[in-house]
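Lab notebook: predicted structure, single chain.

Context: the supervisor wants predicted structures on file for every construct in the current expression panel, including those that have not yet been purified. This is the next one on the list. No modifications to the sequence; it matches the entry in the shared construct table.
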Amino acid sequence: MEPFDDSAYARAAISATVVLFRALVKKGLLTRDEAVRIILDEAVSRAIQAEARDQGEAGDDVNRQCAEILKIIGENL
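Prediction complete. Output recorded below exactly as produced.
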């Protein structure tokens, strides 16, 4: 798989996750604070994974991008 495909799949997964969290929050099954905490925890996890690997791999860029996107989503959810 190419790096472009990897990032496209990661972004699609993030979009699906956001839709799911918004639906759960709207139905009252999950509080906004819980959703934000879960998303920010995942962002931190992705950032740690990216830093743990070699700096030159394409997967690191994807993990960093995902971490930044998750952080922005968590802050604005």
